[in-house]
Amino acid sequence: MKVRDISLLAVIAALYAALVIALAPISFGPVQLRLADCLIPLSAILGWPAVFGVALGALISNAYYWLGPLDVVLGPVANLVAASLILLLRRRLFTACLAGSIAVGVIVGSYLWVYFPPPEFGVVNLPLWAGMVLSITISSIIAIAVIGYALLKALVSYGFR
User: For the stretch 28-56, what's the b/e string if a residue is b when 16 or more beta carbons lie within 10 angstroms of its beta carbon?
Assistant: First the structure.
């Protein structure tokens, strides 16, 4: 790896962790909006340093907040998978961001119910894990496929590639 790539990885990891920790009340829980996830789509233009940066940032922030070992291990894996999908599918940016959102929702939602009860969805009675997957997927779509996609499109329109 080049010094530039390592520096970029470190900056993205630090920014991701700082956003998660600073916005901790809304970054954690059964109903969350992890705004730092809007950095995940940057992997489409910044490549592998961004992929590893958002994964390392999740590791740092999840270890800092410490829900438990599942979150510290699987949270970064979710970001790694999502950012990798976005990088690999970057020719179709919105589809890539949606795929990344679903990956985060399924991976994180599949274990987060261990730490929190899932939110209620009206009269629909979902199994614990399914309610959590749905909740996290919705929040991931907002952070990654809406906010992150808009950030990515803005950067591309200003010449970042």
Answer: bbbebbbbbbbbbbbbbbbeebbbbbbbb
* Residue 30 binned pLDDT confidence (cut-offs 50, 70, 90): confident
Q: What is the separation, in whole angstroms, between the first and last Cα of the chain?
A: 19
* Residue 83, CA distances (Å) to 90, 111, 125 in order: 10, 20, 32
pTM for the structure as a whole? 0.92
Tally of structural domains, the chain: 1
Read off the CATH number of the domain in which 31 is found: 1.10.1760
Judging by beta carbons within 10 Å of its beta carbon (0-12, 13-18, 19+), is residue 70 exposed, middle or buried? middle
Per the prediction, the chain carries an average pLDDT of 93
